[in-house]
Amino acid sequence: MKNRSQRIINVARLRAHYLLMHRIRALEEVAARAFEDKLVHGFLYPSIGQEALTVGVIAHLTKRDLVLSTHRGHGQALAKGASSTAMFHELLGREGGICGGKGGPPHIADFGVGLLGSNGVISANIVIGAGAAHAVKLKKEDRIVVCYFGDGATNRGPFLEGLNWAAVFKLPLLFVCEDNGYAATTKTRTMTAGPGFLDRASALGVPAVEVDGNDVVAVEATAAELIRKVRAGEGPLFLHAKTFRVTGHTSSDPGAYRPKGEVEAAKAHDPIARLRELLIGAGVAVDVLDADKASAYAEMDAAYRSAREAAFPAARMAFVDVQDVGSPLVEAF
Amino acid sequence: MSQMTYLEAGRIALEEEMRHDAMVWAVGQDLGRGGAFGQYRGLVEVFGSDRICDAPISEAAILGGSVGAAMMGTRPIADMRMSDFVLCAMDELVNQAAKARFKSGGQARVPLVVRAPIGIHWSSAAQHSQSLEAWYAHVPGLVVVCPAIPADNKGLLKSAIRCDDPVVFMEHKALLCSEGEVPDDVDYTVPLGQASKVCEGKDLTIVSWSNQVHLATKAAQMLAEEGVSVDLIDLRTLWPWDKTMVFESVERTKRLIVAHEAVAVGGFGGEIVATVAEKFGGAIAVRRLGAPRAPVGYAPPIEDAVRVTEEAIAAAVREMVVCKSGGAPRGA
Which of A175, B44, B90, B295 is deepest in the core (most CB within 10 A)? Predict the structure, then answer.
């Protein structure tokens, strides 16, 4: 930790990261409570422990830049600017949900803040993200695309197709591999041949860099350089970050398959605790940090309360936004 | 009007729409060299390689990338070379293109044309001959189009490109060189969801689409000489399908045959027959004609064994009109 505290840091900026990381964690924890309260209808895919990689990258994006995330994508949604209230309404399947209650936990999207959405299919967003970046290039727009995916996604075909595509067409795209070590409930490395993710990306023509995904300062510094290059037309690039998923795969998965002590060991590298220690070392008062944390939980408690009080969407909404031609609102079947 | 091939009509439709809207572009393998069948011939010289975009053999990226590009406001034509290869991008079509708008609560729009030639053609064998249009008609969110003649290939492709929904556009490979009159008007379109009447008749209704329409037409001509008059409908769009025209016809003829090249089991003929049966009860005699549930083979006799021929259609009509009505057809 000594080395880290010696780095030049921008305390105000890091405090903003601290607050956002707590907001993400609070959202996940309050959502878990909602799940226990039996008010979440499907499954949650908590991102607790992975906050630094989200915050450190998205800090460099403008509202016009685009983010595609994974089923475990609540953090990216919040970081990109999605409303926690609209997200809680979605998790509870209520009116005012960010997707009208049609998407639920793994489908959060908010086009208004450049969040093209999370996805229920592993690696699907890699090719969709490449296509979004392709459109940005065709339209000569001044913005970039950041596409998150997990370590498990690197064993699906769209990983190969999407990275190769992005490299062939030199797209303004940053791939971020959120490596939490698990593909659902299986250790990814036990099912992954070859020398690793960096080599896979490089072999597909996408230069790759590695960073400690639980160190928000390091993530921010590394992402700054990668995103600068992508904006300068040197994309696509690939950021691989080791992190850890503190919970099971879903809200109903206790993670009993994990080796004894693994979670406890990982918690020693908790990204929020590390940032807190750094900020205290830089002279920020504990009270101030505690107030940030408290405000994050207050926000999510209020969002949860708002969602609980909201009505369910009308059943007829099941037939809205399916398609214009041949819509179920018109066709008998 | 100009005389031209089905293939040329599609090429002109795309060229006109690309001139009409700078957001229209096509992506697929070998497009810069005209595409697998020449449907894109000459277009790269006009529009450049950004808009007539060559792609690697990466179906998931061609289709999935087109979904992302469509969500960003462009209007891609994802050329899948043949419909059999769409199967390599089934997630991208069924889970992504068809669901993006719905699952985002209407935020995403996917104005995408998936161009996927179908059908038995030139001994192309089991993996290059399929007609899987019923699969796509089954998926909420998709529009499914199967043109049979050059004019419709032009008019429907233009409508598909202008449509804000993902459209699976299935040309038939055996029709690419077929000729017909095609309107020259750049504003000529054929509305999605409207069938066309190939010939009027009163004894029996045949509903068909794609190449099978031409075999049904031959059957109708044979039957006309025998005094049986067939009301032949080219459905053109499978979803949404033109129930109005089909219902009007079967109410008059009281007999319906749906004939398609695809395998009969689980085919779209079953859907049409069931819909008619539910609406009219036992008042309409129904039958579907499709391929046996076997892959398409290479050797000509094996390939031919699964075709629904004009003779088979005519025989089914005779059986329904002559035998089932207990005598000679009216007017005979």
Answer: A175
Active-site annotation holder among B20, B121, B128, B172? B128
- Digit-coded pLDDT (tens) for A118-135: 999 999 999 999 999 999
pLDDT of B58-68, one tens digit each?
A: 999 999 999 99
Mean pLDDT of chain A: 95
Q: Which of B31, B72, B143 to mutate to test the interface with A (most CBs of A within 10 A)?
A: B72
Which residue range(s) make up the domain with A205? 2-319
A158/B192 touch (CB, cutoff 8 Å), yes or no: no
* Residue B25, domain CATH: 3.40.50.970
Residue B72 contacts A, CB cutoff 8 Å: yes
Do B246 and B271 contact (CB within 8 A), yes or no?
no
Angle between helices A124-138 and A157-168 (to 10 degrees): 20
> Is the pLDDT assigned to residue B331 strictly greater than 50?
no
Picking from B58, B156, B242 by the largest number of A CB atoms within 10 A of its own CB, the best residue to mutate is B58
Average pLDDT over residues B234-249: 98
pLDDT band at A183 (very low <50, low <70, confident <90, very high): very high
The CATH number given to whatever domain includes residue A289 is 3.40.50.970
Q: Please say if B128 is a catalytic residue.
A: yes
User: Residue B301: which pLDDT band, with cuts at 50, 70 and 90?
Assistant: very high
Instruction: Select from B149, B182, B215 the last residue of a domain.
Output: B182
B284: three-class secondary structure by DSSP: coil
A143 neighbors A64 (Cβ within 8 angstroms): yes
Together in a domain, B66 and B124: yes
Shared domain for B56 and B175, answered yes or no, is yes
Asked if B96 lies within 8 A of A128 by C-beta distance, the reply is: yes
CATH of residue B229's domain is: 3.40.50.920
| Domain assignment of residue A68, yes or no | yes
Task: Give yes or no for a contact between B142 and B166, defined as CB atoms under 8 angstroms apart.
Answer: yes
Question: At a CB cut-off of 8 Å and minimum separation 6, what does A51 contact?
Answer: A20, A21, A24, A25, A75, A216, A271, A272
Number of domains in chain A: 1
pLDDT at A155: 97
Confidence (pLDDT) at B329: 47
